[in-house]
Amino acid sequence: MTIKRALLSVSDKTGIVELAKSLHAAGVEIVSTGGTMKAIKDAGIPVMYVSDVTGFPEIMDGRVKTLNPYIHGGILAVRDNKEHQKAMQEHKITGIDMVVVNLYPFKETIAKLNVSLDEAIENIDIGGPAMIRAAAKNFKYVTVVVNPKHYDAIAQMVSNNGEVDAKLRMQLAQEAFNHTAKYDECIQNYLSAQLSK
């Protein structure tokens, strides 16, 4: 699958500007959120704000920004399913072929001395895991990247032939599900510890 549109939304911004530069040079349209978008824009790389895709602003202190059919429809659409294609056309949904997301730093937040329950709760990512899981589920068509160590190899693949190898897409999906599973495990362990106080 040729990568035409990528959604980049990361807490850990390591290497994200370099990846965005490579994707842009390969003709990929970049969609982004908040701080990630600012970093990409500040580097002079064209980027579309997620709110321009959804037609809806980020609300509730950023708790709701990517939970939208224009995002999830774009990620989850089965590209060779005629009904899915029809729905995309009817609702003007553009496919998202790559999702580069890493999550709010929950583990790092709860490691801080005297962290409040409220602060811990605000560092539970919702939209990030939803996008990661959607992209990982649809790995046949979508490349999901949760680890910056893959950026160079992926940028090179996209630059060379416009797509990411099918086996690597499945490996990245497996890594993505492992990533969200560990994230949820960390959250449930934290809440369990709060209950036992």
TrEMBL record:
Keywords: Hydrolase, Multifunctional enzyme, Purine biosynthesis, Transferase. It comes from the Bacteria. GO terms for biological process: 'de novo' IMP biosynthetic process. The keyword Hydrolase applies. One of its GO terms (cellular component) is cytosol. Pfam families: AICARFT_IMPCHas, MGS. The keyword Hydrolase applies. Residues 1-146 form the MGS-like domain. Its EC number is 2.1.2.3, 3.5.4.10. One of its GO terms (molecular function) is IMP cyclohydrolase activity. InterPro entries: MGS-like_dom, MGS-like_dom_sf, PurH-like. Coiled coil: none annotated. This is Phosphoribosylaminoimidazolecarboxamide formyltransferase/IMP cyclohydrolase.
